[in-house]
Amino acid sequence: MRKKMIAGNWKMNYTLSQTEEFLLEIKDRISVDDVDVVICPSFVSLYLASNILDGTNIHLGAQNVFYEEKGAYTGEVSAPMLVSAFVDYCIVGHSERRTMFNETNEVVNKKIKILLENTIKPILCVGESLEERESKKLFDIISNQLNESLKDIDEKNVADNIIIAYEPIWAIGTGKTATLEQAEEMCKFIRDQIEKKYSKKVAQSVRILYGGSVNTKNASEIINSDNIDGALVGGASLKNDFVSIVNC
Ligand code: PEP
Known about the structure:
By secondary structure, the chain is of the alpha/beta class. The protein is built from 12 helices and 8 strands. Phosphoenolpyruvate is lined by residues 9, 167, 172-173, 211-214, 232-236.
């Protein structure tokens, strides 16, 4: 039985004082046993958030990492630095990073490897643009993202440590959610690809989230669909709505 997960991607929002105020307001209401709740604030807020969340069941996630351990990489943040801020999860391959910061599947693969070496669980985002959905190439694109991002990653890590988030780009921050059928179809396709690449056991263990304009109205049906194990929530994770999404 896969444990459900709700992860909140705060993106580039909330200063330190706003982080403190918001987390103090919601933390007791989202600290639950039966769902893994992950909050992903900015790098600057991570350590403060880890102190506020200490003693709760809420996990801390980062939104990015660099793939080298240390060195002359001005402006970058390493996996050991994230470990030192008590980070458990890290988003990689988010479409905003792929499109605005040229994050390729090859880079995503390197980031996944460094995270796993440092015992941080990657949340690997895959998804297609509207044009790609409308072309006949939709499934090839997702399968290629999976294959290249997971190159040389062993099955134990895929089963136990990697979370995959299906995030259609056209549904991110647009208010347009994929229909339940579209989300379930793609999450099932992803699970089938994992079965082909690894095994049925791995496919049945890996958690696959949906992300793209999840809100209090649509969360329940999405999260409770057969092949969807939870949600990666952007905009709604910055509001009290996040509490309702976790509780549904
Ligand atoms: C996201 O950024 O991962 C996301 C899903 O955003 P939103 O929920 O705002 O569409």
